[in-house]
């Protein structure tokens, strides 16, 4: 498969008063043409920082890309000038943000906000841009687009605004669409509609999507591959089936176990004990070790490398080392894995919490 | 928009009526009368004069008469200036005051906005600190101090501009600058804060993610949104300017309304005080009215909310 984007050993730090916060500590992944890669993890794991860094949208200072490469169309995005990045943003890589209520300019009509990106990147007349904006609104399922482009964001509901944001992101047929928790601020029924819309549009336009979320239900619904992030690192990456049916990292087990499910009404929902580490002083060894019931002595001393599980599946845990004791995932996770296997083939909204 | 404007206009009339009423009754509480300092008059003569001006009538009757005249645009006649109508006095004196106020607010707003935007873009740099120090000075030093400093250095020492009086445009420059210092400082401070907040908002990130240049983001997306709260302070600022003119007019010997107002208060010249107060209030309300309309022009959300409620 053709690689669209390659991230290699990306390190991002924020220089604050107290010192250096190492928000992203060596993230690597590839994005293939036409696929959806989900990046999951709890708050503060560096998933949003990574996604913003791909577009160089982090304010510098305080942030800085310490090392690593982001390869896109033969160029390293970390080395481009601001001007060169402006040519890429919105045209080749575009982004959808979390909160549609605040991500549109309240004093500008919807039409002007969509036309702005068209006029910036494509040689269109104002009239052509307006017609294209109407087409785009139709594409994302907004009725009466001729009338709607003259309206302001406050005249749209949350779900409709997110459709507008999507239309704006798609305006120039980008190769990569980064969606940073695009459905988190929406209620569940609207969530499902927006996810359907995104899948539908991806089928039509063939772009690759990086889908940032903390909701594993959404991941099961939209992703082809999944990267699990913890404390600024990718700890497990694999196809969606591999992550759900054959997870290897204890952190992934914890995430799966803490997914709410319809079948376990009376049980208390599992939560991973402890809190993520302070990235101002990242711990030695495996950052997950203090919260990991399977942690071994080596976890506190040496960081685990990425162990290969299959050609597409890698996980960074010493449990995969040949000398490690054989450990089975906890019972609740095994139960989940069985359920996922049973319901595979009818992947839909049923995992959503 | 038309409906919104009409609604604002009605509110404006109601406010004006309340102020007229309040001024009238407060005036009645003022000790003394216009005749207090006229020692030459015998009590009988005083009685005749009070009778003539209707000052012996019961207060409610006076109030109704006052309102009746007011509706017809008649502010009464002055006691101190040989029965000249108050309207005439105001019209005669308003020119210089209005010109000063207008020049100061236009100049101050433009300079303040530029300074504030500059400070926000150069956030936490030397330029930002310079702008901040400038606005703290502008806010804390009263306009009459600036007036005196300007007079001394630019008028007396350098002799670039005339020190006082009112004989042409160059005479207006120093009073305008003195008056606008506060405006510049306030607007700059607000603009900086608002711009910083707006520049951190999600829709600015969206705009940047669209590939819009830094200048485009600031001029097309940020400034308009930052202006919304700034329009709010223009109203109170206009009041500051009005009171500021009272003093600055004295310093530069400008024949304005302020100087007249102060003298009338000393002389208990009821009609002039009431007339001028009412005039100032009307002006203020007009400013607020314009500010409300500006809101609607800048912010589409207000335009519609006003029409529906």
UniProtKB/TrEMBL annotation, chain A:
Matching InterPro entries, A to Z?
AAA+_ATPase, ABC_Ni/Peptide_Import, ABC_transporter-like_ATP-bd, ABC_transporter-like_CS, Oligopep_ABC_C, P-loop_NTPase
CDD domains in the record? ABC_NikE_OppD_transporters
A single Gene Ontology MF term assigned here is: ATP binding
SMART domains linked: AAA
Q: How does it sit in the membrane?
A: Peripheral membrane protein
Pfam families on file? ABC_tran (PF00005), oligo_HPY (PF08352)
* PROSITE patterns (UniProt xref): ABC_TRANSPORTER_1, ABC_TRANSPORTER_2
Name the keywords, alphabetized: ATP-binding, Cell membrane, Membrane, Nucleotide-binding, Transport
Q: Which GO terms describe its biological process?
A: peptide transport
GO CC annotation terms, alphabetical: plasma membrane
The UniProt entry lists the main location of this chain as membrane
The residues covered by the ABC transporter domain are 5-256
The entry's localization annotation reads: Cell membrane
Question: Which family would the database say this protein is a member of?
Answer: Belongs to the ABC transporter superfamily.
Protein's name in the database: Oligopeptide transport system ATP-binding protein
* Annotated organism of origin: [Anoxybacillus] calidus
TrEMBL record, chain B:
Outline the extent of the ABC transmembrane type-1 domain. Answer: 94-295
Record's GO cellular component terms? plasma membrane
Q: Which GO terms describe its biological process?
A: transmembrane transport
Q: One matching Pfam family, short form?
A: BPD_transp_1
Places the protein is found: Cell membrane
Phylogenetic classification of the source organism? Bacteria, Bacillati, Bacillota, Bacilli, Bacillales
Family the entry assigns: Belongs to the binding-protein-dependent transport system permease family.
Ranges annotated as spanning the membrane: 9-27, 100-121, 133-154, 166-188, 226-252, 272-298
Membrane protein topology class: Multi-pass membrane protein
Which keywords has UniProt assigned to this entry? Cell membrane, Membrane, Transmembrane, Transmembrane helix, Transport
- Protein name per the record: Oligopeptide transport system permease protein
